[in-house]
């Protein structure tokens, strides 16, 4: 049996090696390393895949959120609602721009923003909501957009973990994650479902004016060369990453199916176990399983991780410390807020290996030793 990894990028690469190697060599030969034709080609392909009218490639997913908030003309002191249970990057750019992150609790089943609490977090200073499509499925975007439109608030979707997930509205229409709010953002970090071989990100919008502005911001605020209309940053997707992502985009639905097959097998193995809660699929979203995250009940998680490691099985904790307990963000925490769900999740969740190249023998080994400890 091959060594088990959380994400097996090498095996994935070997299957597309011929295509990738040729594309990389072509870039080397043309020397169009920055803003080469592969970048605009990838943007067009991603527009076609997602249904977004405009895609602006950028350097990483964190920059994508920053550019989005800058394009919305957020001013110091403006409030941005963000789930307390997420990776720090989502709140990081809010703080960097001297905006005020307003933390909101997540749903105990889907781990996405609890829409029932959303209106209670809105004040006259609220500028935007940043729902995070955590672990691979969409937050309840229909409800979020209804509230946002009612209060004239922008919505910036953090789609770093859910590229390709589809959200179904009550009328039966479907839109892809990142194309429902005013702006969508994503990351092409190597371990993502659509990952490059380095950093990368992209921003989506259906608004022509926002697209024009975000493109400028990501390129030093430049409208035409050496003419800077707004204060911007330097955030570019390099051509090498773009041509690799173009190749991998063609395989993304196959990758998604492979991840779902792994998730289904885990679900069957752990179904109805009194100490293991399997991930709940949101009723109005497909799941692309960036992570397969279980919730434990009455299990010593540290001892379980040690046991798994001894059997050559990696595992991860996404995330061990909610944002309101992070030292950098503690002053944004209102002591009156109840984040008991996130605090409980921080102590009880565990993520198992899931990727496109998972072999049956590997998964059987994981399941066997996981259950042996929990039984």
Write up what this structure looks like:
The protein is of the alpha/beta class and 375 residues long. The chain folds into 2 domains: 9-250, Type I PLP-dependent aspartate aminotransferase-like (Major domain) (Aspartate Aminotransferase, domain 2), CATH 3.40.640; 252-374, Alpha-Beta Complex (Aspartate Aminotransferase, domain 1), CATH 3.90.1150.10. Helices cover 38% and strands 15% of the residues. It has 12 helices and 14 strands. The strands form 4 sheets. The chain has a 7-stranded mixed beta sheet with strand order 1-9-8-5-4-2-3, sandwiched between helices. Strand 4, helix 6 and strand 5 (154-158) form a beta-alpha-beta unit. Helix 4 packs across helix 5 and helix 4 packs across helix 7. The two termini are 25 Å apart.
Give the overall shape. Answer: globular
Radius of gyration, in angstroms, nearest whole number: 21 Å
Helical region count?
A: 12
Beta fraction of the residues? Answer: 5-15%
What is the CA-CA span between the terminal residues?
A: 25 Å
Q: In CATH's first tier, which class of the largest domain applies? A: Alpha Beta
Portion of residues in helices?
Answer: 25-40%
Characterize the main sheet.
7 strands, mixed
Please tell me the overall pLDDT: 97
Q: Structural class of the helix and strand makeup?
A: alpha/beta
Number of strands: 14
The total domain count is 2
Query: Spans of 5+ residues with little confidence (pLDDT < 50)?
Result: none
The CATH architecture term of the largest domain is: 3-Layer(aba) Sandwich
């Amino acid at each position: 049996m091959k060594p088990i990894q959380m994400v097996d990028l090498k095996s994935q690469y070997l299957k597309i090696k011929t295509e990738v190697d040729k594309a990389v060599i072509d870039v080397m030969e043309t020397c169009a390393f920055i803003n080469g034709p592969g970048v605009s080609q990838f943007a067009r392909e991603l527009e076609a895949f997602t249904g977004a009218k405009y895609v602006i490639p950028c350097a990483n997913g964190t920059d994508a959120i920053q550019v989005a908030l800058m394009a919305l003309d957020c001013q110091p002191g403006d409030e941005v609602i963000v789930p307390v249970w997420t990776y720090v990057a989502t709140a990081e750019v809010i703080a960097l721009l001297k905006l005020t992150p307003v933390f909101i609790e997540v749903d105990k089943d889907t781990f996405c923003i609890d829409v029932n609490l959303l209106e209670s977090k809105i004040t006259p200073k609220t500028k935007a909501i940043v729902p995070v499509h955590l672990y691979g499925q969409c937050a309840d975007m229909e409800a979020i957009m209804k509230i946002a439109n009612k209060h004239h608030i922008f919505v910036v979707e953090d789609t770093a973990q859910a590229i390709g997930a589809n959200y179904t509205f009550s009328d039966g229409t479907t839109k892809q994650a990142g194309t429902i709010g005013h702006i969508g953002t994503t990351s092409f970090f190597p371990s993502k479902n659509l990952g490059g071989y380095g950093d990368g990100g992209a921003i989506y919008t259906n608004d022509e004016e926002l697209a024009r502005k975000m493109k400028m911001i990501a390129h030093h605020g430049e409208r035409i060369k050496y003419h800077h209309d707004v204060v911007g940053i330097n955030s570019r997707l390099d051509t090498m990453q773009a041509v690799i992502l173009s190749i991998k985009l063609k395989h993304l639905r196959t990758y998604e199916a492979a991840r779902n097959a792994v998730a289904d097998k885990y679900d069957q193995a752990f179904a109805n176990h009194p100490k293991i809660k399997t991930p709940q699929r949101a009723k109005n979203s497909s799941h692309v399983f960036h992570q397969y995250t279980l919730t434990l009940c009455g299990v010593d998680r540290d001892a379980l991780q040690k046991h798994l490691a001894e059997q050559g099985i990696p595992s991860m904790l996404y995330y061990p410390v909610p944002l309101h307990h992070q030292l950098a963000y503690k002053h944004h925490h209102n002591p009156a807020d109840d984040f008991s769900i996130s605090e409980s999740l921080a102590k009880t969740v565990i993520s198992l290996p899931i990727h496109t190249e998972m072999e049956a023998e590997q998964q059987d080994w994981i399941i066997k030793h996981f259950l042996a400890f929990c039984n």
